[in-house]
Give the backbone structure.
Amino acid sequence: MDSTPSPSSSSPFDLVSSALGRYIPRGGAEAAAGSGDAEGEGDRTTRGQGPDNPAPDRQDQILGVVNLDSDLRITRCNLDAPVFAGLDAMAGSPFADFLPPRDVPTVTRRLRQVLEVGEAHVARIQRLRRGDGSELVVSMSILPAAPPQKGLTVSLIAMATRLHLYAAETAIGTSLDIGETAQSLADSLLAWGDVAAVDLDFAVWTGEGVTERPQSRIRLRRAALVPDRVWPEGYVTPGGDLPSDASRLLAQAVRRDDAPQAIVVPDREAVERLLGSPRVIRALVPSDRSASVACIPLVLDGTPPVVLGVAEVWRRADSPFRDSELFDLQELVARTAHHVDLARQHQREHTQVLALQRRLLPRSGGDTLEIASVYQPATPDSAGVGGDWVNSFPLPDGRTALVVGDVVGHGLGAAAAMGQLSMEARALLSAGLAPDEVLEHLDETVTLLDDAESGLAAGYSALGSTCCIALYDPVSHQVTLSSAGHLPPVLVLPNGHAGTLAVRPHPGLGAEFALREPFDVHTFDAPPGSLLALYTDGLVEDRTLSIDEGISRLSDVVSTVHPWDTLQQAAREVVSALAPVRQRDDVTLLLARMIGYRKGDTATWRLPAREDAPARARAHVSALLRRWHTTGHTRDDVPLLVSELVTNAVRFATGPITIRLIRTSHGLLCEVGDTGNGRPRLSRGDLLDDGGRGLQILHRLTNRWGVRWTDTGKVVWADVAR
């Protein structure tokens, strides 16, 4: 066995062994004691020394290294420290011989992964099996060999108690995901037993408040369990709820004298007596060999203290817990309980923001287009749910609004800004404002949100948020679009051609005054069967690709959506093809398949603004309604309604008058456009006052009516039920 590195070598094995050489004399244990024995004899003496009787001057030596070939067999090793005594490392033997059988699949998979990928796997808490059947807890790092050499170097650090406590505290709390936090704690607890589990109060698991609820009603859910193996039927694994009897018993056990305390159940007989029910025993006791258990509460300091859950460490009968070990377990759990509470708080915020996020997702697209949306939040251990949002809603005038935005930041501040901008955009669009005008208002809102004196968003800035608004007209089959710094939408035409819409870049919402630019309005043809994709940057960003390449990939994937495909399923497939399941930013996609109105369901007339215009309009509308076989009051009300609107246009506007009638699934939509810029307002007139009579008739004959503004004037629209 080679335990002396070549001075000229620079492989990971030799570098680690070089460091070990400063602590381990080349002659092994007897050399350390002043013996003149040869190197080989010293090695054999070291191997035969028991772990509890190290050489007096070498008790703190805890480092070791093993070299493996591509078949995961040992080629060289340096395990001369007494703590590794009993690990019979022979050249040519499989590294798996060092491992407990239950850990062989997992560790082998990690070793091969480092071989294939070439990235080190650092500081895994692992058990090694000695020749006498006892086990040694180490921190194991797997390093790829330096080219041109092949194989692996496995460095081992025997986990002394204080070192293990430090390593565990460092590892726990690196994630804000409550499941990963619990798993890190369970991995660390395994150093004191054969099986470790972390059971959390259900309110902690879901992120709910824990200080306002009675602790006697604790309901435990298993958050973590190690080692990873196939467990017998009936045993509680991560994600499963403990039986109610077990939850109650554990809660009572750790709250003796109304104060959280660690307890030890010393033997199998006592365990069965405590748990009582065979069903509970089958759910909690790992195996017949497990005879004792230490239960340590995860306590949130306060008055009174709050129990977040229970950590359990199980051992065999021949290895009872010592008082010092119980003290170490309590110290570790006490040091890390606050990480569990931080993860709970993050989970609570994550859940609240996610609920708001999903509340903003569109529900349906109406009769003129089909929509589907996918929202995929960032990983729970990221900074939190982001400010991505999409919305789709029919406007009162028959068009449909498609809106996508990305608010800067994460968490509740971003969620509040997101909700405000989304609702404001919907209100302004429903009031008839054009997309560029809506973005001007949103730009002002973002500026106000950043004003610290206003107190609206203390500690949060929404400057740099982006938004894109698209309005689909089902009659003209056109999309009118304005963008504030957002990535361009992708349009797939019925012939399969896909590409991004040419939208002029913009600095975004809330830009400095010197950088502000007007919001352009773009109009694109979108024939029936076209597919429009609006998205946020999380869908197309990839560290290995430029943003343009990411958008090009999106265009290619969206172009494969078949007209007969279910749109919601297609949206999910697009996201799964482009975005990994776990990512650091939110992913949002909105697909809209254009349907529009059939040509026979619409009619348009242009009339000069003359005194005979109302009569001509009535004649055109009445003839159309007869062709549409309209009956009942609609056949009489609609000509009167159109006549009054045209009369009002002739009186107050100049230029030609445009009349458009649309047959919808629920009624008729009447539109009268003119070049005037005055806003019609309904008022309470005197009985004999003829002014405003048209609006009174409009109000009484319609379900709703309103005004939208155009570049040349305005359009008054009215919705009439059939």
User: Anything to note?
Assistant: The longest helix spans residues 323-359. Residues 1-9, 21-59, 452-458, 685-691 have pLDDT under 50 and may be disordered. The two ends are 94 Å apart (CA to CA).
